Amino acid sequence: MARILLAHSYFLRFDAKARAQMQPYPPLGTLYAAAVLRDAGHDVALFDAMFAADENEFVPALDGHNPDIVIFYEDNFHYLNKMCLTRMREACLRMAGMARTRGAVVLAQGSDPVDHAAEYLGRGVDAVICGEGEETAREAVGAVSRGVLRDAASIRGLAYYGEGGRIVFTPKRPLIRDLDALPFPAWDLVDMERYRAAWRKRHGLFSLNVVTTRGCPYSCNWCAKPVYGQVYHSRSPENVAAEVALLRENYAPDHIWFCDDILGLKPGWLARYADCVKEKDCLIPFSCQTRADLMLRDNNARDIARAGARTVWIGAESGSQHVLDAMDKGTTTEQILEATQRLQEAGVDVAWFLQFGYLGESGDDVRATLRLLRRGRPDDIGISVSYPLPGTPFYERVAARLGEKRNWAESGDLDLMYPGTYRPAYYRALHTAVHKEFRMRQALRKRSPRRLVLLPVNFCQWVYARARMALLRRLPPSLPPRVAVLPS
Question: How far apart are alpha carbons 303 and 295 in whole angstroms?
Fold first, then answer.
């Protein structure tokens, strides 16, 4: 039996945008790893960085648990971890150094350690866990003896320094096919009352996160899939309903965030889940992500409402079919509009993810997105700019044009890291203008007193943002610093 301290490096305090939203969720991926390691007979503890002031709070956890092994296991179900924010990387590396000086063997799992294996291995990490990590972590823990990894070469899904100082990547580990065989996440390791208090203070309810699937079979060329590729594995509706029932009994959440890339892709899954939660009397309102075309199949829009959906997020991305096709999105603007209408008719709020700045997007394409937004009238929106992540076709297209900055520092950065049609400042102004226009239209449509009070402020900010956009459109696009201009 080993003493293991599991940790992650997502500090809410270091992400101003997420801190303002205050929608913290326990590190689900880390909790799955904790459950697997505990089932293997190890003594497992958790350092949850979510509410920590800074990396120094890791010291009492190290001293209190005196672990043989420290594993920085990131929550791969949290989209911000896929973005590999540089502030969180620095936090992980600093904590890895703390653990190493105390004699612990240090492992790191997540997209960023794989993308930057040399940096992690050079700063206190003994080995990087690549891909789906539960089984690799279990085998690596079993191979640790007297502070070193034995027979690391025989462990699939590992990266470490081999002879001559070269990084060795062992063969890829097959993905877990039977997700029902996994234990439920180790929810008992979480300071649940701290999460409850944060949610209730800001939103008046308490939300917890659940994942029903792993992976996505679609081919959006900007979407990073470092762990699952295009494989899609699903838990059974019965297994998910059993976990939801457990959460309701033990922690009484008011809401569930299904953090899948796509919820309910398998035919009949949503209908069966709706039946299961009714049978178990554990229906909890939820939000989720899905695709527009999926909501047009069979009775999915009605079934997802019957299962408890309150808000469904759709990756609309753009109102320009030209841009959607360039992204390999596989959906149409008409599908976006029709799916939105069907869900709203079923009593479900619809939110759209929008993405600006994709390679080749023109001013006409931007205006097409604004027209689609006015036609579709979603209930909420989220806006970002295109973000090139290693391993994606989109990254390969722009890699030679990137500057030194390859990742955002935090989620509100919004820096376009390659030469776009307009300057990065234009997209920040566009972000503000679209949000403010959306809020004004909502206020007038829904006649909400709170929104109407903010109408003058939103109008002034919208006018200012539009004026900045007009000015910035007339300026030549600027290149990221220290980037070579490619020959035409």
Answer: 10
Question: Which letter does DSSP use for residue 421 in this model?
Answer: S
Calculate ∠ Cα 157-159-165, nearest 5°: 155
Longest CA span, the chain? 69
pLDDT digits (tens, 9 = 90+) for 396-442: 888 888 877 777 767 777 788 888 899 989 999 999 999 999 999 99
- Side chain identity at 162, as an amino acid letter? G
Q: Kindly indicate the confidence band of residue 478, based on its pLDDT and cuts at 50, 70 and 90.
A: low
**Long-range contacts, stretch 34-39, CB < 8 angstroms, 24+ apart:** 34/6, 34/185, 34/186, 34/189, 35/182, 35/183, 35/184, 35/185, 35/186, 36/134, 36/135, 36/137, 36/138, 36/182, 36/183, 37/4, 37/6, 37/137, 37/138, 37/141, 38/183, 38/186, 39/183
Encoded tokens for 243: 């976990």
Whole-model pTM: value is 0.91
CA distances from 139 to 129, 153, 155, 325 (A): 11, 12, 7, 43
Which whole-number Å values give the CA distances from 110 to 8, 79, 171, 235, 366, in the listed order? 10, 12, 17, 22, 34
Outline where DSSP puts E strands in 299-440.
Answer: 309-317, 349-356, 380-385
Distances from the Cα of 402 to the Cαs of 67, 333, 375, 486, in angstroms?
A: 41, 30, 35, 11
Residue 145 — very low, low, confident or very high, per pLDDT cuts 50/70/90? low
In this predicted structure, the answer to whether residue 379 has a pLDDT above a threshold of 70 is yes
